[in-house]
């Protein structure tokens, strides 16, 4: 049996097989070497690949066979290998700690195992009993692989990846490391559902291979993971919730959801509320305060009650506080049916040293005073009488969820009370809370989060419309003059009536605006209209004197007076409106009836009566009165020597003042006369759709909306910065309501369908016809006249008193005059004059001028002058209503003539 180099591959395979079978038959120890040698030779010829394999395997086999003869040597080598491996291998087993697991896995997914080919996927939409366990938190810089948190995962239907169970290797800091993820069968707690799983099943073993690194490098790795997680967490606030299972004894906090940190600056509160509150908390968190408390034997803890209507920022303040001071939030819902006193104590025991405990809507927790009173009544009916309110409350209530008032009382300042935390309770109805719950030392401060003041509305506007170029949406431009717009907006918002949340929602609907249309936008902004709520909050928290107020202790200064007094006090001198009560002869008009019916309910409900803008049939007329040079300073200011009398017409009914006039009760005051009623005021009701005597603030605001419409480019900004004012009175001539009906009646008569009219307008045609006849007989005018002083600073530089862009009357087409290339301003002016002498354009100009001179401004038809147009100085003329200005159209090389609203 000889081999031949010239054999084909098939032949050589056949030879190989026959050789192999004969070798098997005749194999003996002496010939085996020869057979192997021949086999190898043939294999080498078969393919170069075999040749290479043989070159590697042969020496290994020879070595093995040689070593077989020295068995003891092998065991020495194994021992040696074990010793070396022991020296170069360090191992850490990470116990089932969900947070650390998340952090390690997130870190490895982000860095070491980027290219790993074995991953575990969490399918979109997966929910488990505890989603925060299933979904990864953003413990490190979030990549696409590591979504933000459970909520977002569900929202975006994203897929989450983690390293699969098994063995993975990676390099850290130049060291070779391995990561073994093992899933061990979890010992199920009593009552836990079969099949439920969570990360506590997971064990991680980290190994480092290095002669010099060892455990230190593993420690370094874990430290690094922790610190990366911590720095990522810096921009996050963790919110923990209790994990309470109905049939389980387990009570603990979940591992918390990370939420983007919110800072206190994001919370828009009245500075009188916000600043002292923050200062108080800052002082408490100061380590010196802590050591003082400890030294003085005072329990180191703090409690606040944040109370006020829905959507005034109580919860937002709590989370922003946590964000500002890097604290975790532990959210407790006392109304949880699984919560009881013992569980609550356990949860408080497990709180970290420094954190915020947020107890939301404490009044609806089922342990409020109302409930306790009911219990008390029931007990009394059973003959168990006791006068001690606290004692009564403390008796374990047989509430459906086993939570009694003693639970929170103990954890707040009983022996079991933890130290170092800040407890924030929120409530919409603080009066219903039990006195014991909010007594001093349990609650150190009670803070009212009220409706939006002027300051809050202004700041909210500024916050929402101040954007960096990176934050701009597609098509959006950066707004200019934001403070001016903010002020104009806030002027239109009735103070102390609307919640910041409502204002925010309203403003967000305007978010996508181009900076070009800024003036149009300002005009668009009107006070939002509100439906009277039928359920829910019926009254603002009343703030009686400390003595009878269970909520406000002696430490809190209550906001004195009625809502109107408070709000007008808060607004200082900016606005004053006060009218005497209506005379009994006053006849309410149609528009007022709705408001009257709502005013029968609570003050709060009525104050939210619908603010209706002027309807077209009630369109007001504005009659500017020439400026009176005697009025140089602000009426009502010290040193005011003039009188507003000269500017006012004889037939004035009501002066609605946008400024703080002198004391209206003082008969010696020059303005006194105009603050007194002259006739009945029913028309005022009509335009405001509310009773101005019942709701002076709202009526005043509604009235000022007209002023705002009258002065599109006279924003009343920076009141306090100017002491010289240009005063101009605007008049609203409100048509008599019968005239409005007249118009409708006529229209209906034309259609000869009075039944339709009756059906649609609820109007008695015959009666209306009678009224109309009667009206015709009435002597004198059939409208009411209201006057508004409209002010603007005279001494201010344009930069101090920025004006909104001029408004062009929309329905007037500009007359375009051709511009000759290279003209100077002077030449342009001349060209304009010359062009006007051209008969066609002169006729047109004249027609427009005449029309405008007699036409009151249709405000809603105004639009700002387009951006690309530049005003030509000293080339204007005009009437009382309009200025005619000439503009250079940059792109079109033409001069246009526009009528601008004055
Ligand atoms: N003062 C405020 N400053 C900034 N944003 C606010 C303010 N008040 C409310 N908001 C916004 O309104 C929304 C609701 O606010 P939040 O939940 O804090 O009100 P709340 O007073 O806690 O209401 P509730 O009593 O219903 O719990 C949030 O989105 C928040 O951003």
TrEMBL record:
Comp. bias regions, Basic and acidic residues: 556-568, 841-850
Domain BCS1 N-terminal: 71-267
Compositionally biased intervals (Low complexity): 569-578
InterPro entries: AAA+_ATPase (IPR003593), AAA_lid_BCS1 (IPR057495), ATPase_AAA_core (IPR003959), ATPase_AAA_CS (IPR003960), BCS1_N (IPR014851), Mitochondrial_chaperone_BCS1 (IPR050747), P-loop_NTPase (IPR027417)
Catalytic activity reported: ATP + H2O = ADP + phosphate + H(+)
Polar residues compositional bias, start-end: 594-604, 830-840
SUPFAM superfamilies: P-loop containing nucleoside triphosphate hydrolases
GO cellular component: mitochondrial inner membrane
Pfam families: AAA, AAA_lid_BCS1, BCS1_N
Family classification: Belongs to the AAA ATPase family. BCS1 subfamily.
Name of this protein: P-loop containing nucleoside triphosphate hydrolase protein
Principal cellular location given in the protein's record: mitochondrion
Subcellular location per the Swiss-Prot or TrEMBL entry: Mitochondrion inner membrane
Transmembrane portions of the chain: none
Organism field: Recurvomyces mirabilis
Region Disordered: start-end pairs: 372-405, 535-604, 767-789, 820-865
Topology of the protein relative to the lipid bilayer: Single-pass membrane protein
Manganese listed as a keyword: no
Any one GO MF annotation of this record: ATP hydrolysis activity
Keywords linked to the UniProt accession: ATP-binding, Hydrolase, Membrane, Mitochondrion, Mitochondrion inner membrane, Nucleotide-binding, Transmembrane, Transmembrane helix
AAA+ ATPase domain span: 300-453
